[in-house]
Amino acid sequence: EAAISIRDLSKRYATGKQALDGVSFDVERGSIFGLLGPNGAGKSTIINILAGMVQKTSGHASIWGFDIDVNPRNAKASIGIVPQEIMFDPFFTPFETLELFAGLYGVPKDKRHSMELLKAVRLEDKADAYARTLSGGMKRRLLVAKAMVHSPPVIVLDEPTAGVDIELRQQLWEYVVALNKQGTTVVLTTHYLEEAEQLCDRIAIINHGKLIANKPTKELVGMA
Ligand code: ADP
Ligand code: ADP
Question: Are the C-beta atoms of 121 and 145 separated by less than 8 Å?
Fold first, then answer.
């Protein structure tokens, strides 16, 4: 069974904008899957539907075998989302932020778990600093740790490296690859072909709300 399965997914926003028009694809378990496309193609819309933040107009989506309509709680428990926008309480520390979300996800209380997550994204020195005092790069890394708090089998990163410098980009990649080596299925969106080529086993290309390619990275690069 696929880690993520999307069938005939469509989204028409209240403005009348058809952001997705019959998109179908599967993400294989254990893989790194890249969703590539220019700005406005519909990438975030797909992720926001998976995250439960945007209501689809039609079609189906399931995560780890759980249909997002039929089994929304199980679907959500199976995925960690790293959104584009930074959104956590500026007056909580990274440690408190992780503990808060662990509580929300019903993760058994274990302070070591939060510290391990912070260590993995190299934020252990900032565990007790207010989030508002962290640099942009540190906040991004905290977002990644937050997405992994309930140890989901799938993690989705929405444009993880947009507007990020080379050093931070390298750090994020290393972490993503390490997670994948430990068995986590990874989906990332990007508008950089190079980034997708280097990281992903398979790349789907979306444009104007339609999937226009979906191939193993090697084949796709061979075509160019
Ligand atoms: P991408 O992530 O590939 O840049 P998006 O999924 O954000 O693309 O957007 C796809 C299209 O839907 C764009 O034309 C965008 O302007 C539009 N869109 C996104 N969110 C909304 C919204 N909440 N209301 C209306 N249109 C939206
Ligand atoms: P670190 O936590 O590794 O010190 P920084 O926050 O100093 O990372 O970021 C490194 C570089 O990346 C800086 O030049 C910063 O402007 C840029 N950067 C980090 N996050 C963002 C972001 N969300 N948007 C735009 N630029 C960012």
Answer: yes
For the entire predicted model, the pTM comes to 0.85
Closest residue by Cα to atom 5, ligand 1, is: 42
- pLDDT, tens only, 194-212: 889 999 999 999 999 999 9
Closest-CA residue, ligand 2 atom 8, reads 137
Answer yes or no: are the C-beta atoms of 198 and 176 closer than 8 Å: no
Asked whether 165 lines ligand 2 (CB < 6 A), one says: yes
CA distance 83 to 213: 24
Residue 82 in 3-state DSSP?
strand
Please classify residue 135 by burial: count the beta carbons closer than 10 Å to its beta carbon, then call 0-12 exposed, 13-18 middle and 19+ buried.
exposed
- Alpha-carbon span 91 to 8, nearest angstrom: 42
**Nearest ligand 1 atom to alpha carbon 41:** 3
Find the ligand nearest to 159 CA. Answer: 1
